[in-house]
Amino acid sequence: MVVLNKIYTRSGDKGTTALGNGDRVAKHDARVNAYGTSDELNATVGMARLHAEGVMDERLALIQNDLFDLGADLCRPDMAKDAESEYPPLRMVEEQVTRLEAEIDEMNADLAPLRSFVLPGGSALAAHLHLCRTVARRAERLATALAEIEEINTHAVKYLNRLSDWFFVASRVANSNGADDVLWVPGANR
């Protein structure tokens, strides 16, 4: 369990930060960008939850917890050394991905097929979920960029990919099951 008694340490004053294994890297390192963006995504989910109730809020709470798991996974390099570690690092697992898939399928079952792209908006919850979707896509891009230069857990990338889809479908649910979606009209303002 994490214990934080002192919030500032001054250890990052020279532009470096510690990874989960203790290695120090630049604060703009690809790995730090990836897990930092998952933290930013978690904050946007928190904003969305201000407008959510019931099952939607419960699911968003699960996602917030998953995003901490994701950050813990991404901040820990050297996957090959996981088995040797005295304290095995927390890694994303397939079950987290399949839970999102099941929820997407459940939410999508009652939605009419789209005939146009959806503009971010509609209800306050839908607008916040669209913001979550775009931050999730950025986190995914950063994670895949990291995967090109270092080994990362493939479930982390899968999770981010499904999560952006989850946010899209959830935004449609938040817009009265798609009835209040704001649809793109190509060339409408020419």
Give a quick rundown of the structure:
The chain has 190 residues and is mainly α. The protein has five helices and four strands; from the N terminus they run ββαααβααβ. The protein starts with 15 loop residues before the first strand and ends in a 7-residue tail after the last strand.
Give a verbal description of the structure.
The protein is 54% helix and 5% strand. It is mainly alpha-helical and 190 residues long. It has one domain: Up-down Bundle (Hypothetical Protein Ta1238, Chain: A), CATH 1.20.1200. It has a two-stranded antiparallel ribbon. The protein has a two-stranded antiparallel sheet with strand order 3-4. α1 packs antiparallel against α2 (54-74) and α4 (124-149) runs antiparallel to α5 (154-174). The longest helix is centred in the C-terminal third of the chain and has 26 residues, at 124-149. The chain starts with 15 loop residues before the first strand and ends in a 7-residue tail after the last strand. The model has no long low-confidence stretch (mean pLDDT 93).
